[in-house]
Amino acid sequence: MSSEFPEYACPYSRLLAEASTKFRLQVYDLEDFVEEADDGYSVDPFGELDHASKCYGLKQRFPDRVLIMTSDKCFMNCRHCTRRGLLGKAQVVKSEAELASCVDYVSSHAEVRDVLLSGGDILTLNDEEVMRFVDAFARLDQIDIVRVCTRALCTNPGRVTDKLAEALARSKKVWVNTQFNCADELTIEAKTAAAKLIDRGVPVSCQSVLLKGVNDTGEEMLALLRALSAARIRPYYVFQCDPVKGIGRFRVDLEKAKEIECYCAERIGGLALPKFVADLPGAKRKTPIELL
Ligand code: SF4
Questions:
Q1: Is residue 215 assigned to a domain?
Q2: Which domain holds residue 260?
Q3: How does the average pLDDT of the chain come out, rounded?
């Protein structure tokens, strides 16, 4: 087990891990797992601890978007997490002064139109704390989109209550971005949580990660995309594993990723077909894998 990023899962995630071997791989290290001590990758490939950090708790890698660190907690510690080496060191925005300085940064950069409320998982905060972040940015005229980035729909769907969904719908600027990686994760509870948001006009989109043993065949990926579409969740991106230290056992070969994309593209319509991309340090956009 990794000492730097301990296994943790809330009761719902532990139950789902008992029911699904594909989900279990994301929750627990394999018994014979040895931490990849020197796999040549960085714990911080995107410079979140230095050049991407613009003020306390605010990261910016692209001109029109900023990311706010709202929490360093999640409902489970996904073994493939990009921020697995950072969450313990994260600058989490807590005080009014810290939030005000993030709002000031956005206000003084008119090109920013999209704010990602991330972490960690923002829905580990209570409703009032979530809405403090949402409202602080949604009230700015320059902001078109406030993204609530949460895996709770998959890892703890009971957290999405009617009351929270109503609050999130109020500004008409919130988009919920979530992560499902295999069809087993689309449980009744997960679909109910998504419906609470979608029925109130909050779009729900899914960013999946291509993971060895979880979704690295055309059939498994297609099953995921169909399950998402049936739940009215828009499949948005499928990411190659980020170049992050310690997740090598999940990496899928680029040629295989292209085969999976092709398999899906030949069997499902464009509405349900996500972009297969890699997030590369220094790139100006998410890079489609067919360009690699
Ligand atoms: S929910 Fe997201 S931030 Fe949290 S451990 Fe999983 S991948 Fe990382």
A1: yes
A2: 11-291
A3: 93
Residue 236 lies in a domain: yes
Tell me the C-alpha to C-alpha distance, in Å, between residue 219 and each of 36, 223, 274. Answer: 29, 6, 15
- Whether residue 1 has pLDDT greater than 60: no
Question: How close is the Cα of 178 to the center of ligand 1, in Å?
Answer: 10
CATH of residue 161 = 3.20.20.70
- How many angstroms separate the alpha carbon of residue 103 from the centre of ligand 1? 24
Strand spans (E) along 119-184: 145-149, 174-178
Q: Is residue 2 part of a domain?
A: no
Q: Which of 151, 209, 241 to mutate to test the pocket of ligand 1 (most atoms within 8 A of CB)?
A: 151
pTM: 0.95
**Model pLDDT for residues 195-219, shown as the tens digit of each residue:** 999 999 999 999 999 999 999 999 9
Give the closest residue (by CA) to ligand 1 atom 3: 120
Measured CA angle at 211 (ends 288, 61), to 5 deg: 45
pLDDT above 70 (res 36): no
Nearest Cα neighbor of 55 from 106, 95, 119, 120 is: 106
